[in-house]
Design brief:
single chain; mainly alpha
Length: about 130
Amino acid sequence: MNDWVHGIRAEAPEKNTRVALQEEPLYEGERLRIIYRLMTNPESEGGAGITPKEGEWENVESIFALHDHAYNKAWIKDWSTKWLLEPEDLDEIRNRLGESVRARINCLCMPTLTRHRSHSTSHLPSLT
């Protein structure tokens, strides 16, 4: 439910967790966010309550969300050779980072894609 509230998912999940996960498995971004929240949310909210530099956690410097370094390296290499994002790239963003990030990137890219397409065909004669 929390992921839906924060825009990771477009729709509220099924109340029965098992049914919800069978119908729609977690995206990678959701899985990593859940792990992070399990570590950092207060115990009253079902988390471990890890609070860097406070109380029993005084020796914890900071907590940073988990990352798949090998995947990120391959992703950066792939994207650094592209001029335009494909629909599959937006799906990959959603799967890795969540729906809200995909939506933001889609909004940022659309004016660029429209502008790029209009410039790329501006040298062609009109067919009308």
